[in-house]
Amino acid sequence: xxxxxxxxxxxxxxxxxxxxxxxxxxxxxxxxxxxxxxxxxxxxxxxxxxxxxxxxxxxxxxxxxxxxxxxxxxxxxxxxxxxxxxxxxxxxxxxxxxxxxxxxxxxxxxxxxxxxxxxxxxxxxxxxxxxxxxxxxxxxxxxxxxxxxxxxxxxxxxx
Length: 159
Fold this sequence. Notes:
The chain is an all-alpha fold. The protein folds into 2 domains: 2-81, no CATH class; 102-158, no CATH class. The protein has 8 helices and no strands. Helix 1 crosses helix 3 and helix 1 (2-14) crosses helix 4 (68-83). The termini are far apart.
């Protein structure tokens, strides 16, 4: 379980999740429970950059508040993350940053479209995926740029 938690915390750090404002927390300032969970970092904790320690503590806090089902899902997602190559991880980080920069309305629309996609029969989803894979890079860029312009236009209209 500690290994899973360690990996989850690392994923949260890599994804650049926003941090809470912790004081410059040294190893001896951590609670016994925090030390137990973060024991793989005991040797180098005080040498870690403060921002990284903050992110790890925030991740630990979030982990402790999760239900068993949420922990299971987070662990599953982290396993998938670990299987990605560096380019795929960078692309995921980029998409995450783009999502974070969207307005609440844009995020809601994206979530709605994702739900729509999930409701499609598997054969239709696979046809759409194959259609995307069959496009050349220029076609994909054109579509992505069109969508970005559309989102930006809508965002500007809402201001």
